[in-house]
Write a structure and sequence with these properties.
2 domains, 131 residues, alpha+beta
Length: 131
Amino acid sequence: MARAYTLKNVKLETGFEYEGDEVVHTKTDLFSVNIDDGKIREILPNTPGNNNAIDAKGLLMLPAFKDMHIHLDKTFYGGSWQATRRRTGGVKGMIALEQEICLRCSKPLRTAPWSSSNCFNRKGLLLQEVM
């Protein structure tokens, strides 16, 4: 049997904030989302007083997706999120940036056997391979 319900206080992206022509943040706002038979049916202005709705507590709603790969030059894996910014120096510049990030790691990265020290060493080996 299909189940219909409403989520309130759902954070959704509404636009972008720029520095010059670069996106540096996303704008968000709270909404109510009506779901029926597992599908979003309506996105409405937030109804925080709706006692029948499930409270999403301001969490960001994202589509269901699986990213089966990662580009270390486009993300800061294990760190806090930040918008992608234009980088200079090509591949070597990105490797240098990743080495700098690894040096700032105060704890092992999320997946063993990666740590700040061997992360730096692996980047050096990668640099030797691409040169």
